[in-house]
UniProtKB/TrEMBL annotation:
<comment type="subunit">
    <text>Homodimer.</text>
</comment>
<dbReference type="GO" id="GO:0004557">
    <property type="term" value="F:alpha-galactosidase activity"/>
</dbReference>
<dbReference type="GO" id="GO:0005737">
    <property type="term" value="C:cytoplasm"/>
</dbReference>
<dbReference type="InterPro" id="IPR000111">
    <property type="entry name" value="Glyco_hydro_27/36_CS"/>
</dbReference>
<keyword id="KW-0326">Glycosidase</keyword>
<protein>
    <recommendedName>
        <fullName>Alpha-galactosidase</fullName>
        <ecNumber>3.2.1.-</ecNumber>
    </recommendedName>
</protein>
<dbReference type="Pfam" id="PF16499">
    <property type="entry name" value="Melibiase_2"/>
</dbReference>
<dbReference type="InterPro" id="IPR002241">
    <property type="entry name" value="Glyco_hydro_27"/>
</dbReference>
<keyword id="KW-1015">Disulfide bond</keyword>
<comment type="similarity">
    <text>Belongs to the glycosyl hydrolase 27 family.</text>
</comment>
<dbReference type="GO" id="GO:0016139">
    <property type="term" value="P:glycoside catabolic process"/>
</dbReference>
<keyword id="KW-0378">Hydrolase</keyword>
<dbReference type="GO" id="GO:0009311">
    <property type="term" value="P:oligosaccharide metabolic process"/>
</dbReference>
<dbReference type="InterPro" id="IPR013785">
    <property type="entry name" value="Aldolase_TIM"/>
</dbReference>
<dbReference type="InterPro" id="IPR017853">
    <property type="entry name" value="GH"/>
</dbReference>
């Protein structure tokens, strides 16, 4: 029940944020309505110990099981089509020869392209997490110095949705970095929804009034300005009160 309740809470929160902000996102034909689906972070965080927690770790099996559930229980047909892998999916280091991001070989033995193909075979959409920093929030390789390379990689994996976080970078450089990545995503020719986290970092460290909304909406389909949603209605309400 928690899993399904969260799907509804996420949809409600995203809808409220979009309506209350009165700012429309990147006009590239994507995310005309709030994207609906499932993301690993809410329930599984950064659980990578698959020996101790085989059914609760971030791995290929979890993603495919979840995809099957979305289809079997009718959620896909209600519009919950995005399956998004949050932080902790990569190996601890980039490929030593190409510098490409690589998925953890033990947890994703068939690679991310295979995961995407499985999701697409179920008429679902594939989402993935990156971070505009030297590291991700959980200490995995960041994308700051590899924006073009990472844009190409996820396009080759047939990703449909990109969440870009903002750990391990300074808020004052994030707007330009995200803008550059938005442009690079466009040059791949692969349509990808771009979810931007940097407004949250600006509002936490400085002030929400410092966000350039016009610049933001030209580069991002959707964004966050506040803290993480937790597994409770009180969390949703607390975020709404901040808007």
């Amino acid at each position: 029940m928690i899993f399904y309740r969260l799907l509804g809470l996420i949809f409600i929160l995203e809808t409220i944020i979009l309506i209350s902000s009165n700012v429309y996102g990147l006009d590239n034909g994507l995310a005309r309505t709030p994207p609906m689906g499932w993301m690993t972070w809410q329930r599984f965080r950064c659980q990578i110990d698959c020996k101790e927690y085989p059914n609760d770790c971030i791995n290929e099996n979890l993603i495919k099981r979840t995809a099957d559930k979305l289809v079997l229980n009718g959620w896909r047909d209600l519009g919950y089509k995005y399956v998004i892998i949050d932080d902790c999916w990569p190996a601890r280091k980039r490929d030593s020869k190409t510098n490409e991001l690589v998925p953890d070989p033990d947890r994703f033995p068939n690679g991310m392209k295979n995961v995407g193909e499985y999701l697409h075979s179920k008429n679902l959409l594939f989402g993935i997490y990156l971070d505009y920093g030297t590291l991700t929030c959980e200490g995995y390789p960041g994308s700051m110095n590899y924006l073009e390379l990472d844009a190409r990689s996820i396009a080759e994996w047939k990703v449909d949705y990109v969440k870009m976080d903002g750990c391990y970078s300074l808020p004052n450089i994030q707007p330009e970095g995200y803008e550059n990545f938005s442009r690079l995503l466009n040059t791949t020719g692969r349509p990808m929804v771009f979810s931007c986290s940097y407004p949250a970092y600006i509002s936490w460290i400085n002030n929400i009034k410092l966000i350039d909304w016009n610049r933001l909406k030209k580069n991002c389909n959707l964004w966050r300005v506040l803290g993480d949603i937790q597994d409770s209605l009180s969390s949703v309400v607390s975020i709404i009160k901040c808007l």
